[in-house]
Every structure is written in C-alpha cells, then in structure tokens.
Design goal:
Elements: H1 3-6, H2 16-27, E1 29-31, H3 32-36, E2 56-58, H4 59-65, E3 66-71, E4 85-89
Antiparallel strand pairs: 1-2, 3-4
C-alpha cells in the first residue's frame, strides 16, 4: 500500500490509511502486488486512476509460495468496478505442472 504507486494523482490519504498499514504489519501481511512490482503503476479502478484491489498475503506465503501475480485485463470488469487480480501459489508437497506421457 503505497499512495504514490496506488493513484495517478497524489491525494491526501484517509486518516485510517496509517491504521490499516499498522494493522497489516501487525498481522504479518503484505500487499503482494507492490512487493512483486515495486515501481509499476497499474491501476484497477474503473477510471484507471487508482488501485483499489489488494492481494494481502502472509509474508512467508509470499516469500515461499507465490509463483505469479497479474491483473486480469482479459476479463475486464463484467459490470463490476474492479479489475481482477490473479495469483498463483505453489505448494511444497505438490510438484509443478508436468505433461503426462
């Protein structure tokens, strides 16, 4: 959650924004999008001016299991005001996809 990356225009953030950041840190959560793409500005709001969709993961899950994260521009909106975020996680007990003979 970075106001400089999450909006096209830097605006004053709500007073509760700092509380949300403290709360997520206390829970050991991070927003996977800016952690994966720290300088990429890609907006998910309906007018493409801000990022309104977040993907919170536990730090260990992000570090050990996140394979891929991306905005799904192909299925854009479908009468919704959000752009979907797709992410893929791996599991240590299951190998990655393989082709069967």
């Amino acid at each position: 959650m970075d106001p400089t990356l999450d909006t096209s225009k830097l605006q004053h953030t709500a007073p509760t924004f700092g509380l949300l950041q403290q709360w997520t840190l206390h829970l050991g959560l991070l927003d996977a999008w800016p952690s994966t793409y720290p300088t990429k500005k890609e907006f998910t709001g309906p007018k493409r001016r801000n990022r309104i969709d977040y993907c919170f993961l536990y730090t260990a899950l992000f570090t050990n299991n996140l394979v891929k994260i991306k905005h799904n521009f192909e299925d854009q909106y479908h009468h919704a005001d959000h752009l979907p975020i797709m992410f893929q996680l791996k599991h240590a007990d299951y190998p990655s996809y393989t082709r069967l003979p």
